[in-house]
Amino acid sequence: MASAFDYAPAPESRSVVDIAPSYGLFIDGEFTEAADGKVFKTVSPSSEEVLSEVARAGAEDVDRAVKAARRAFEKWSALPGSERAKYLFRIARIIQERSRELAVLETLDNGKPIRETRDADLPLVAAHFFYYAGWADKLDHAGYGANPRPLGVAGQIIPWNFPLLMLAWKIAPALATGNTVVLKPAETTPLSALFFADICRQAGLPRGVVNILTGYGDAGSALVEHPDVNKVAFTGSTAVGKAIARQIAGTDKKATLELGGKGANIVFDDAPVDQAVEGIVTGIFFNQGQVCCAGSRLLVQESVQDELLHSLKRRLSTLRLGDPLDKNTDIGAINSEEQLSRITALVESGEAEGAERWSAPCELPSAGYWFAPTLFTNVTQAHTVARDEIFGPVLSVLSFRTPDEAVAKANNTQYGLSAGIWTEKGSRILAVAGKLRAGVVWANTFNKFDPTSPFGGYKESGFGREGGRHGLEAYLDV
Ligand code: NAP
Ligand code: MG
Q1: Regarding the domain with residue range 14-258+459-477, which homologous superfamily does it belong to in the CATH classification?
Q2: Domain range list for the chain
Q3: Of the residues 91, 282, 294, 402, which has the maximum number of CB atoms within 10 A of its CB?
Q4: Does the CB atom of residue 233 touch ligand 1 within 6 A?
Q5: Is the pTM of this model over 0.70?
Q6: How far is the CA of 24 from the centre of ligand 2 (A)?
Q7: How many CA atoms lie within 13 A of 286 on its CB side?
Q8: DSSP 214-239
Q9: Which of 106, 116, 292, 460 is catalytic?
Q10: Which ranges carry the Aldehyde dehydrogenase domain (predicted)?
């Protein structure tokens, strides 16, 4: 018998996107092969189907791209801000016009549900370009003095969890301020950046202003190393972030590093349970938990722990895992086999160390990379699952008795990117938020993003801010 939760399949059409069998690097306004002719394949993590073959950049290609960006910089930086704004507005509008195509493409290459690419990623990508387009002719009023100067060529390296959104966070402020860019997308999600290259051509952006190098970590490293790169912007793991910091030490390269996190989501006893449960789900199961600012540590006041966990497990049992192109899907595929084995190993360490595992009862598809929504109870602060970033759909639950204890536990981490507070009392929100060492603190909500709001971390979550007026500083000589 059909239950109230049986849905008919509602697949988004794949035919709205035309993926070519192969793509080159985008250098100086042209698609070109890698100098050594190397290529690699990108697969769809929900099916393991090969989507396309893309060029793999090496050091020689990095040099070509940086030279093209340097040549373009002279004219681009000399344009009046109002002229640069026209290009950015044009790009933003084309992204809106092509958003359905881009959402399907991103879902295919990344594995995240179409509901997220359609309703979160793509609207935020367009909003970011609109926002920074608005700043391009107002830089004198941004608080950095009159006529602030761009830095030059920005080398930008992004991860696979929000491919097009991270591209937007990097490219929009760089171009608005008059810099030119060489960007390397993650190796598992190269396609949306290549489609963006096409959008640059469609918008008539002068050649060389944006260059896209698909490739592996060695291409990222060569980009960081290149002597003619003036600014390095990186989002990814803390380990690679540290390596980059060592690489650029002693040079005059400016850098922003946006690294990992282990965000605390704090639920007080006066919080409305059902709303808190929705916020916890958004906090850790959005994008399969592959979010640097995920609320991966739930801190719940002891007196409401049982009630909250009961509701949370019931809610997790209703999440729909499966085909990411189905509009009813809540939980898509894990981005890669490698990431899946990282998640699996960390979850096994949690069990081995004595935490109690509960996974939502759901059937995992036979092909592709999947992990059921999971939570751990009986977690202590010393457990690996309470300390290490899992970057998957795994929540660690700890409890507390007093607000001071909640703050102490929330701050007991090497990271400092995000936190959440759930309570009915406004005064408590203010008192607790002020004591949390996290770049962003959400109150009675989670994972809310807006281009006007600066984003970034403390401690091993990195330094520098992206978004908002603060995000301009990273690309200006101030
Ligand atoms: P990662 O290795 O740091 O990758 C991020 C980007 O850096 C990718 O484009 C990557 O290229 C590139 N890269 C790799 N090694 C490099 C090097 N030595 N120099 C310059 N660039 C380099 O992250 P990951 O392997 O994709 O994920 C590992 C962990 O990082 C995750 O489990 C998660 O904890 C964390 N992570 C955090 C974020 C975040 O938003 N803060 C995002 C993703 C991952 P390749 O793709 O070719 O390796
Ligand atoms: Mg892929």
Answers
A1: Aldehyde Dehydrogenase; Chain A, domain 1 (3.40.605.10)
A2: 14-258+459-477, 264-443
A3: 294
A4: no
A5: yes
A6: 16
A7: 23
A8: ---HHHHHHHHH-TT--EEEEES-HH
A9: 292
A10: 32-477
Distance CA 61, CA 219 (A): 9
Name the fold adopted by 264-443. Aldehyde Dehydrogenase; Chain A, domain 2 (3.40.309)
Nearest Cα to Cα of residue 135 among 465, 387, 425, 471: 471
Instruction: Please report the pLDDT score of residue 4 as a whole number.
Output: 63
CB contact set of 266 (below 8 Å; sequence gap of 6+): 299, 300, 400, 406, 410, 419, 420, 421, 422, 432
Residues 6+ apart with CB under 8 A from 312: 277, 280, 281, 375
Helix (H, G, I), strand (E, B) or coil at 458: coil
Distance 287 CA to ligand 2 centre (A): 15
Residue burial 239-263, b: 16+ Cβ < 10 Å; e: rest: ebbeebbeebeeeebbbbbbbbbbb
Strand (E) positions, 137-277? 153-157, 180-184, 210-212, 231-235, 254-258, 264-267
Which parts of the chain register pLDDT below 70?
A: 1-5
The number of C-alpha atoms within 13 Å of 364 and in the hemisphere containing its C-beta is 13
Segment 63-115, tens digit of pLDDT: 999 999 999 999 999 999 999 999 999 999 999 999 999 999 999 999 999 99
Q: State both tokens at 392.
A: 């998957």
Give me the residue label for tokens 């591209």. 167
Predicted confidence at residue 1, as pLDDT, reads: 45
Q: How far apart are CA 112 and CA 313, in angstroms?
A: 22
Ligand 1 atom 15 nearest Cα: 217
Nearest CA to ligand 1 atom 9: 186
Strand partners, 120: none
Q: Is 28 exposed, middle or buried (0-12, 13-18, 19+ CB in 10 A)?
A: middle
Judged by phi (left if over 0) then psi (alpha if -120 to 50, else beta), residue 425 lies in beta
Query: Could you confirm whether 460 is annotated as catalytic?
Result: no
* Half-sphere exposure of residue 446: CA atoms within 13 angstroms, side-chain side: 32
| 237 CA from centroid of ligand 1 (Å) | 5
Q: What is the pLDDT of residue 7?
A: 85
**Whether residue 292 lies in the annotated active site:** yes
Q: Which residue, by CA, sits nearest to atom 44 of ligand 1?
A: 236
Q: Phi and psi of 11, rounded to 5°? A: -75, 135
DSSP 8-state symbol, 13: P
Q: Does residue 254 sit in helix, strand or coil?
A: strand
Instruction: For the chain, give the number of residues.
Output: 478
